[in-house]
Amino acid sequence: MKKNINKLVLASIFIAIAIILTRILAFQVGNYLRIGFGDLPILLAGIILGPFWGAAVGALSDILGFFIAPLGDFFIPGITLSAALWGFIPGVVTRYIFRNKSFAAILTSCISCGILVDIISTPFWLSLAYGSLTYFAMLPIQAANAAAMIAVNTTLTVILIRALVKGKLIDEKLN
User: Fold this and answer.
1) Total Cβ atoms within 10 A of residue 107
2) Among 5, 18, 55, 145, which is disulfide-ready with 61 (CB 3.0 to 4.6 Å)?
3) Which residues, 6+ apart, have CB-to-CB distance to 2 below 8 Å?
4) Residues contacting residue 58 through CB under 8 Å, at least 6 positions apart
5) Is the pTM of this model over 0.70?
């Protein structure tokens, strides 16, 4: 019971940080591109808490964030699914594929999310919602942003995971 309460509290903290980094401290370029670090707490939630908690953090941070400070013209459920994948994929990669929090696991997580979410999924949902830009017109911008953010997210995640392990705030092994 205590372990679930700890996970719930940590997930709530990750949600709050994700909302702040996405809605307040990010740079929005039109309706199609946002540059910021809002995916980082969701990525960390997936690695630290597991895939289902990570997916919940991603989905709830998007839903709550929309109601607190909407970024677009309307709510897009597909974007919520994309946010959930930012937590789910790293959880699966670190827990079930690599079975550790190594650099290789984190890099694979960031590359997978960058390709599946930032390059494939998000432009698809935006093109369906707005219709003004086709999927292929958004692809080069999203791909360039994803490539840069893969490097940034990987670096920051490795640094944060190592600091949390060194400070004994999380276990080196997966729980």
Assistant:
1) 18
2) 18
3) none
4) 18, 42, 45, 46, 80, 83, 84, 85, 86, 87, 88
5) yes
Beta strands 33-35 and 27-29, pairing class: antiparallel
Residues 6+ apart with CB under 8 A from 112: 89, 93
| DSSP codes joined into one string, the chain | -HHHHHHHHHHHHHHHHHHIIIIISSEEETTTEEESSTHHHHHHHHHHH-HHHHHHHHHHHHHHHHHHS--SSS--HHHHHHHHHHHHHHHHIIIIIS-S--HHHHHHHHHHHIIIIIIIIHHHHHHHHH-SS-HHHHHHHHHHHHHHHHHHHHHHHHHHHHHHHHTTSS-SS--
| Paired residues of 28 in beta bridges | 34
CA–CA separation, 88 vs 55, rounded Å?
A: 5
**Distance between CA atoms of residues 96 and 4, nearest Å:** 20
Q: What angle do CA 114, 86, 27 make, to 5 degrees?
A: 70
CA quadruple 165, 51, 41, 27: dihedral positive or negative?
positive
- List pLDDT tens digits, range 4-63: 899 999 999 999 999 999 988 888 776 567 788 999 999 999 999 999 999 999 999 999
